[in-house]
Write a structure and sequence with these properties.
The complex is a heterodimer of chains A (341) and B (365). Chain A has eight helices and 18 strands. In chain A, strands 6-7-8-3-9-10 form a six-stranded mixed sheet, with helices on both faces. By secondary structure, chain A is of the alpha+beta class. Chain A starts with a strand and ends in a 12-residue tail after the last strand. Chain A is globular. Chain B has 365 residues and is α+β, with helices and mostly antiparallel strands. Chain B folds into two domains: 225 residues, P-loop containing nucleotide triphosphate hydrolases (Rossmann fold), CATH 3.40.50.300; 122 residues, Nucleic acid-binding proteins (OB fold (Dihydrolipoamide Acetyltransferase, E2P), Beta Barrel), CATH 2.40.50. In chain B, the strands form five sheets. Chain B has a six-stranded mixed sheet, with helices on both faces. A five-stranded antiparallel sheet of chain B has the order 15-19-16-17-18, with no helix packed on it. In chain B, strand 7, helix 5 and strand 8 form a beta-alpha-beta unit. Chain B starts with a strand and ends in an 11-residue tail after the last strand. Classes of the chains: A alpha+beta (341), B alpha+beta (365). The interface between A and B is medium-sized, with 32 and 35 residues.
Chain lengths: 341, 365
């Protein structure tokens, strides 16, 4: 395993500036997730690190070695793609062993056996080693695809939305597994996704990326609790953060320069009279099971927040609510720091 | 507008029985979801209601009229498919008006109806646009408009949002439900996505293996699942099942889970000694040092407002939803306490819930 230093990288494709002066340092053993919508430059970043693309300017170092001009094969990287492609005519064992049997590597067969068995155990697919790859469920296939990267013990793993083709349950299960494996092996992973839940649950640090620019890098908690701007604030959290013009909520003591108040569900207290004196009308209640989404109309704006499903709220009703420690943003959308946190 | 009644509905394809004896009534004006995994028979049921498939047995009543063997076109029902096909060479207004043109309606009336439909869907500004220029959401709105313009008695929708990405799907869910509230037409909605069903429906029928496992309001189904299948299918993360062996006696208020005695809602049913499962939702678990049931933290998942903490116990792995302020270390030993009145018991052999005092008593208030 190794650290990765990405220094001031830019990359343009024709008219499109895909990556803009992006600097990102990944520590040895760190799980960094780049989070952004499609077209943000996530996949381009991975391709630059692998060497499938070359930057127009800037440098990339892996384990302290400048690899900017190196061919992909020399960089000691393992890549897991969105769509798992296994060799259908081979068994799970042979699929896992394939990268080690490459003529360039010359690994002895007993060592191959040992590594494959260790990897299979880690991924809980030991009992499937002799199965044909096509005889597996979707989740097992994706584990084999991840396993094929893990057998090699490279300097860094690059993963491009490896869980997105799986159904919700499997995705949740593999999220936890991948995090566990990463922690056990101490692997360095650069992972890209547009799924905020994957980013929040797995990352040591999240890099929020938009239009080829890295907007913020920090732990999930830092990004969620102290986002640099409104865009980053809206990337994390379900339901999405609500933004109200500060003029509509004179009740909160906002710091000077506040134009917009950012309200997450945990900042709203519903139905506690004498609290803040704001009154909203419940437009709709949506069931999620463990919680309800409450759509609260307030001075022509709609706030979406969560409430206990057994709290007696009805649509059409007026309720009193108050705000506790919301986020504050200036005219440019930058967050204004408060001393509350 | 219409009430839809389905009686002993059965459908077999050769050896395979897709739907086995469904019974339910969809009230006039209700938003009714058929929810289940692929292959559970939900789409076949919908196609029988539409008249696109003939049942092997059973009856379908539309506003009291037996329509079981009526042609689809005679049923006055509109079907919205997953993949919305619009006529690419026509503009939005012509696409929406097309079904009326086919009926031979006069131009002026068509124009009025199209305008009214567009107003309901809030797409008046798009009426003259080419359909090829529309965004995914607007295409979906136009497809809906084409279904609405005939003013059918009921709408049948087969995963209409299935092709959209998650964020946008949620937006369209809101829009569909708002639209339903405005026009009040009976809607039957097929989906495999529990969140869609929970968010929109008045009533949900959960299907599995061709059978309706439970019908109820979203909260009833969530709080009081009739079977382990329903408990597992609804909720994310889904309900935890702690496995244990024991006998149950009606009137008991505790169960014995290995070495621990746990309070549960009063049992209404006795059960001979057998493997059993205690069902507990992630948000009804909290950490308590003094709790007799202990486990080791396997992992935590930060979600902002809350975190999901996975704990390995002697009775299986459980996921707990805790406030994200609660400090948790991977590997630490923790005591688990449950919200007693929310606990449910199941017989894993039959998969059915064991009756307790709380059944049917909550979720209505």
């Amino acid at each position: 395993m190794a650290d990765v230093a990405i220094e001031n990288i830019s990359k343009r494709f024709g008219q499109t500036q895909a990556i803009r002066e992006l600097t990102l340092n990944i520590d040895d053993g760190e799980f960094v997730v780049l989070l952004g919508p499609s077209g943000a430059g996530k996949t381009t970043m991975l391709r630059l690190v692998t060497g499938l693309e070359h930057p127009d300017s800037g440098a990339i170092a892996i384990g302290g070695r400048d690899v900017t001009r190196e061919a992909p094969g020399l960089r000691d990287i393992a890549f897991v793609f969105q769509q798992y492609s296994l060799y259908p005519h081979l068994t799970v064992f042979d699929n896992l062993a394939f990268p080690l049997r490459s003529p360039a590597r010359r690994v002895a067969e007993p060592i191959i056996r040992k590594r494959v068995e260790q990897t299979a155990e880690l991924l809980h697919i030991s009992s499937k080693l002799n199965n044909r790859a096509t005889r597996l469920s979707g989740g097992e296939m994706q584990r084999v695809a991840i396993g094929r990267a893990l057998v090699r013990d490279p300097a860094i793993y690059l993963m491009d939305e490896p869980l997105s083709s799986l159904d919700a349950k499997l995705r949740a299960e593999l999220r936890l597994e991948l995090k566990r494996i990463q922690a056990e092996l101490g692997s360095t992973i650069l992972y890209v996704t547009h799924d905020q839940v994957e980013a929040m649950t797995m990352a040591s640090r999240i890099g929020v990326i938009k239009d080829g620019r890295l907007l913020q890098l920090g732990t999930p908690r830092e990004i969620y609790e102290t986002p640099v701007d409104q865009y980053v604030a809206s990337r994390l959290g379900t339901p999405q953060i609500n933004f109200l013009p500060a003029a509509l909520v004179p009740q909160v003591s906002a710091p000077a320069g506040t134009e917009v108040v950012g309200i997450r569900t945990e900042h709203v207290r519903i139905g506690q009279p004498q609290s803040g004196g704001m009154v909203g009308r419940i437009h709709r209640i949506e069931h999620l099971g463990e919680q309800n989404h409450v759509y609260l109309e307030y001075k022509g704006q709609t706030l979406i927040t969560l409430a206990d499903p057994h709290q007696p709220l009805k649509s059409g009703e007026n309720v009193e609510f108050s705000l506790v420690d919301p986020l504050y943003f200036d005219a440019a959308g930058r967050r204004i720091a408060t001393t509350v946190h | 507008m219409a009430e839809i009644r389905v009686q002993d509905l059965r459908k077999s394809f050769d050896q395979f029985t897709a739907v086995q004896g469904s019974n339910f009534t969809i009230e006039d004006g209700a938003f009714f979801a058929l929810l289940g995994p692929s292959g559970c028979g939900k789409t076949t049921t919908l196609r029988m209601i539409a008249g696109l498939e003939l049942p092997t047995d059973g009856r379908i009543l539309l506003d009291g009229d037996d329509v079981t063997f009526q042609r689809a076109s005679a049923r006055d029902i509109a079907f919205v498919f997953q993949l919305f096909a619009l006529y690419p060479h026509m503009n939005v207004a012509d696409n929406i008006g097309f079904p009326l043109k086919c009926q031979g309606m006069g131009r002026r009336e068509i124009r009025e109806r199209v305008a009214e439909t567009a107003r309901l869907l809030r797409i008046e500004h798009l009426l003259q646009s080419k359909t090829s220029k529309l965004s995914g959401g607007d295409r979906q709105r136009v497809a809906l408009g084409r279904a609405m313009v005939r003013r059918p008695k009921a709408f049948l929708m087969d995963e209409p949002l299935g092709a959209l990405d998650a964020e946008f799907r949620h937006l369209m869910c809101n829009e569909l439900r708002d639209l339903h509230d405005r026009i009040g037409a009976t809607t039957v909605y097929v989906t495999h996505d529990q969140l869609e069903a929970m968010a929109m429906a008045d009533q949900i029928a959960v299907m599995n293996g061709g059978r309706v496992e439970q019908i109820g309001s979203p909260q009833e189904i969530y709080d009081d699942p009739a079977s382990m299948f329903v408990a597992d299918f609804i909720g994310s993360p889904s309900m935890n099942f702690l496995r244990f062996e024991g006998a149950l006696h009606a009137g008991d208020r505790t169960i014995t889970l290995g070495q621990c005695t746990l309070a549960v809602p009063e049992l209404r049913q006795s059960h001979a000694a057998a493997p059993l499962a205690l069902g507990v939702r992630p948000e009804h678990i909290r950490f308590a040092d003094a709790a007799p049931l202990r486990g080791r933290v396997f992992g935590t998942e930060y979600l902002g407002t809350t975190q999901i903490v996975t704990v390995d116990t002697e009775h299986g792995r459980v996921a707990a939803r805790l406030p994200s302020r609660t400090p948790v270390q991977t590997g630490e030993s923790v005591g688990l306490a449950f919200t007693t009145e929310r606990l449910r018991l199941f017989d894993p052999m039959s998969g059915l819930a064991i009756q307790t005092a709380n059944h049917g008593a909550i979720g209505h208030g």
